[in-house]
Design a protein that fits this description.
Length: 240
């Protein structure tokens, strides 16, 4: 009789241990992945108007659009107009340009949780074909120091291609409204300019050089499917 009770106790304990993992798994919350296509977003850079209001030597107005796949992959396009009106320090030379530019690329969201916050890293290709003006009313011979004729060059042509490496973050403010910022390192790939000289500023790139740093503060309107609530079909596919 005693042996039967011990055997029954052991069997009950084994069955409980075998059922425990299954019960624990049922209690765990299953977080389904985001849908393949999560929507689209449009955005505008706020730094351009701020720089213009502060009287910067160059500034740019920029808007863009992007797609959202799995809440991790964001192919995008950015369009803008860059301008510069600069007068040289200690001399009378002047530089002017105003021209469009564009960028295409992709951002990746490193945040695995679909909680509305995103930590982004990205790569972009930028291009601008523009004209620039350069003038100097008091051009002097650098050797003899004699005053020469005034220099007035208009419509000089240039083309520039570059890559941008970006890192930043964004967060949800309210409903479809989001705010994001990023820092960018820009590396020039190729540039063709007039034989008279390189421009002071390249639209979309910044102050002319082999590399440059920049950044944006974007107001974003995110339109699309939510990543927290999936439809019935998505949930059925996940269970399978």
């Amino acid at each position: 009789m005693r042996q039967r009770r011990i055997s029954r106790y052991i069997c009950t304990l084994l069955i409980s241990l075998l059922c425990l993992p299954a019960g624990a798994k049922e209690k765990q919350e299953v977080i389904p992945p985001a849908p393949l296509f999560c929507g689209v977003a449009v955005f505008a850079d706020l730094t351009g108007p701020i720089m213009k209001a502060m009287g910067s030597k160059f500034n740019q107005m920029e808007v863009g659009a992007r797609l959202n796949f799995r809440d991790h992959y964001f192919p995008l396009c950015e369009l803008g107009i860059g301008e510069s009106d600069r007068e040289g320090l200690g001399n009378s030379n002047q530089f002017h340009t105003r021209a469009p530019y564009f960028r295409v690329g992709m951002d990746y969201n490193f945040n695995k949780k679909h909680n509305g916050n995103r930590f982004m890293g990205g790569l972009r290709y930028g291009f601008s074909a523009f004209r620039y003006d350069f003038s100097d009313a008091a051009f002097a011979d650098p050797v003899w120091g004699m005053a020469g004729e005034s220099l007035n060059l208009e419509g000089l042509r240039a083309r520039t291609q570059w890559l941008e490496f970006s890192v930043g973050c964004e967060t949800k403010l309210w409903s479809i409204v989001r705010l994001g910022w990023n820092l960018r390192y820009k590396a020039r790939l190729h540039q063709s300019v007039s034989h008279y000289g390189e421009p002071y500023y390249t639209p979309g790139f910044g102050k002319n050089g082999s590399s440059a740093f920049g950044g944006t503060v974007n107001l974003i309107f995110d339109i699309g499917r939510t990543t927290k609530k999936h439809n019935k079909k998505d949930n059925e596919n996940i269970r399978k």
